[in-house]
Amino acid sequence: MGGIDPILLLASLMVASTPILLAALGELVVERAGVLNLGVEGMMITGAVCGFAATVLTGSPWLGFVAAALAGGVMALIFGVLTQYLLSNQVATGLALTLFGLGLSALIGQSYAGITIDRPPSLNLPLLRDIPWLGPIVFRHDVILYLSLAMVVAIWWFLTRSRGGLILRAVGENHDAAHALGYPVIAIRMAAITFGGAMAGTGGAYISIMRLRQWTEGMTSGAGWIALAIVVFASWRSGRVLLGAYLFGGVTVLQLNLQGAGFRIPAVLLSASPYLITIIVLVLMSLSRNARNATPGNLGATFHASN
Amino acid sequence: MSDTLLSLRGLTKVYPAVIANSDISFDIGAGEIHALLGENGAGKSTLVKTIYGLHRPDAGTMTLNGQPYAPSEPRAARAAGVAMVFQHFSLFDALDVAENIALGMENPPPMRQLAQRIRDVSNAYGLPLDPARILGDLSAGERQRVEIIRCLLQDPRLLIMDEPTSVLTPQEVEILFQTLRKLRDEGTSILYISHKLEEIRALCERATILRLGKVVGACDPREASARELAELMVGTALKPPTRAAGAGAAQGEVALEIRNLSAASPRAFGTALSEVNLVLHKGEVLGIGGVAGNGQDELLLALSGEMRTAPGSVLLAGEDVAQLPPNERRARGLLAAPEERLGHAAVPDMTLIENAFLTGAVREGLERHGFVDWRRTRGFAEKVIATFDVRTPGPDRIARSLSGGNLQKFVIGREILQDPVVLVVNQPTWGVDAAAAAAIRQALLDLAAKGAAVIVVSQDLDELMEIADRFAALNAGRLSGSVPVEGLTIGRIGLMLGGAHDMEVARAEAG
Q1: Which stretches of B362-458 are assigned E, i.e. beta strand?
Q2: Do A307 and B104 touch (CB under 8 A)?
Q3: What is the pLDDT of residues B151-193, one digit of tens each?
Q4: What CATH number belongs to A6-114+134-294?
């Protein structure tokens, strides 16, 4: 491949995938609890702008990420109160949250447009970083990226091995039965929703603080929607979410490199390719019988404890 | 008399506009099987939910083993030794048996130990269970076993069972009773909720009867007759349905014939029909029994026309209707009333007038030049309401606003008044109070006496024994041959329904 460095390509693949991975992992937990929050895009962009602003104001990107997680969490709480306590429709509320987030972030970001921040330091992993090939690809990244990978394992363990995860899945599967057994359905769902918002906010901030190091309006450019799609096609399993997110990130980076290297494929087609390839692969994966039964039984259903 | 385990004093629970429980007081003894009897809406469910901590009473106190007992949530109730088997199972289809059981326990052991305990306890009580199976694949009887084992693993002092036998075959009921008696002998108290009087007379030592939220009586059900219990429950004397003399005895012409009907279920987790054969004569009531989920819904769909089947498989008075849609069948006199009232038999948010139009348009001529004839439709709806004593302020009310029993009278009456040649009803008295159930059964008998052929699909065997001339059993999508009801025993019916599947009777401890 003329002009494309495979090591650099793989390393930037991981960076490009991390925002979607974070947001999708958050949404995975939310949907396993039976809530469909279509506001991921809105929470991501709000996290992106708040994280960037906090980084500019404090000079610390880590405080920026904390601010982004809080901002995403607050956005999610709005969604949670509307859907869980005021029993509004989850689909409509989620869409409204995305529109709200896009508008709000544009407003907050007005005074931050055009500012560029320094690249936050990578984690210095002695010895490991010097392994040929593997070192530059895997061991020269920042702490948030490793955190996202740790979350893949942590969420898998939580959902399949822990009692808390079992209760969360039970609430998503059949909220009436969970309520009859005495589990606090609304409280569990609010916790999941807030967690999902914090993850989406962190993912958004990864774009503005780590990848682009600046703020532009609408900079998440649909990453939240891709995260939503990946959760579904990954049949609500965290390992497959990782696969889907890295596939999307990988094709994104590859097509940018191909465009840069001047391949004779129409740029429009290349730009569309990450979306197309990710959807096709995940649809093929989700065709198996097991995957089709994986939908949480009460996904998107409104819970109201009647007597 | 045995020591008192739980005593209730003056329990009252008020909902907006309804007093669900009013000043309820009674005692449950240690090691006693205590029946709680009452009609739908008598306040049984509210009362047991109070005992189980699902809601708090507005007034009154409970004492458990001499200690004040006021659980604020089910966990507190479970910690105090109160366990409950729910009427509508509190189970999770996508999870496996062990996970379902762990969810109902306070401090479940690690999964591997739990799986072993499930095997041990379920075998000890004759209710074998494989902890690794996914719940969605289990039969209704097996699901109930999961609920019971979940309770037993916590060594409860009081076990509450809410209508536990409605999904079981008679043999499975007998096994359940053996298990319950064994538990009682070990000192566990059981609060047994049911409206099946014969079961209560066979199982329980004491009974408390509720009506309209109040305690109206207590007795030893072994010494009272089923008739006396029923009249305490309902508050009036009951009139059993009567048949016109000679009805059903004479073999009329063939009204409906099903030949080698096989069809896959259109629903997920449905049951395929397999080589169903049936001949139905005019003036005859055929009862089809079976445990839920053995093809009842599919048979109704195949007859109503919602599901088309192979040509020649459904013959109405000799004419092949297997490929005809519902309205064509209605025009020829084949009418059906499905089990699910809201959402299948009636559109919940439409008025009774609109619902009357939906199935009555063809036979009652409620349509004029492609438009709804509202005047005639209203007239038809009012006629149904008046004839079947549907309690509603008027035909403009939406279907959802009616109580279950009243809506059931409406949807059954709507078909009966269309003067069917063949009427198929599924669970005609499900969730209906005794007086309304008696009225519906009488109407079905009257219809048959006028020469129509009636198929009643029901899980209530007593109902089928009461009104059917012939009986057939549906088991795993296959229909048995039909036999006359006269002289048929419950035991024989149980065998026709597929017996006890793989359950075994709990053996009494040696000694």
Answers
A1: 367-368, 371-372, 422-426, 453-458
A2: no
A3: 888 889 999 998 787 667 777 788 888 889 999 999 999 999 8
A4: 1.10.3470
